[in-house]
Amino acid sequence: MARLLNRQKQIPNGFQFRQPEINWQAPRFASFDVIVNGLIAARNGNPHLTQKHNWPTDYNTVAEEVDAYNARICEMMGWSDYITATGGPPPPKSLSPQNQREISAAGLKGKKIWAGVRTLNDWLDSGEPAVDQSLAESRAATCAACPKNGKGEFESWFTKPASEVIRKQLEKAHHMALSTTNDDNIQVCNACLCPLKLKVHTPMKFITPHLKPEVIQELKAGLHCWIIAESK
User: Fold this and answer.
1) Whether 161 contacts 12, CB under 8 Å
2) In angstroms, rounded to a whole number, what is the distance separating the alpha carbons of residues 200 and 195?
3) CB within 8 A of 194, min separation 6: which ones?
4) Which of 115, 84, 65, 81 has its CA nearest to residue 2?
5) E strands, the chain, where?
6) pTM of the full predicted structure?
7) Which of 11, 45, 75, 97 has the fewest Cβ atoms surrounding its Cβ within 10 A?
8) Could you report the per-residue pLDDT of 87-126, keeping only the tens digit for each?
C-alpha cells in the first residue's frame, strides 16, 4: 500500500481528511500533525460514536489513517512524487467505506478542476482569438439562468494552487478586454468546475478534448447547456 513520502510536505491540494459521521474535516492546508491532533480531539469529543465505530485515538494509529487517506488521493491523481511505491504492510486500521467514498469524491473534484485549468491554458497559450462577442453573450446568458451556475469566491471552490492559476488566467482575459453583460451573474459551473467568465469566451476546439463522460452527464443535468449543444 502506498504511503506518503514526506508527511511534512503538502500534497498539491493540501492534506485532507474527513470524518463525516461527526461532521469534521481537516482545516485547509493544515499541517499533517495539526490534522492528526485535530482528528483525535474530535473523536475524543464524541466518545459514543468513537466507541461505536471503534475509531482509534492514539497518535500513531491515527497518523497512519491520515497518511493512507492522502496517499490514496495521490495514487488516484497520479501524484507519484508524493508517495512511496505501492506495496508493504497495510496501515493498522483500514479506511472505512465512507472514507473511501470521500477519497474518490476528492479525486474526482481535483481532476475536474485541473481539466478546466488545462482547457483554459491551452486556449490562452495558443494565441487564438476568443469566440465572437455575440456567441459569448449567448453562452453567458445560458449560464446565468442555469442551476449549475455556482456562486462564491474562488477560494470556496478551488484549492489555493488552482485559485492562483485561475486568477492569472482572468488577468489575461482582462488584458484581452473580454467580458459579457452577465459577468456579475456567472461564477463557477457546478458540473465542470470551470470559471464561467473565461469559459464562455473559449473556442470549442479547446473545450472538447478535456470533456470527460461523467462531466458531460452532469452538464446534461443543467439548463440547455451550451457546451452540450455546441458539442453535437
Assistant:
1) yes
2) 9
3) 116, 119, 120, 188
4) 84
5) 18-19, 24-25, 149-150, 188-189
6) 0.53
7) 97
8) 444 444 445 665 555 545 555 555 666 677 788 888 988 8
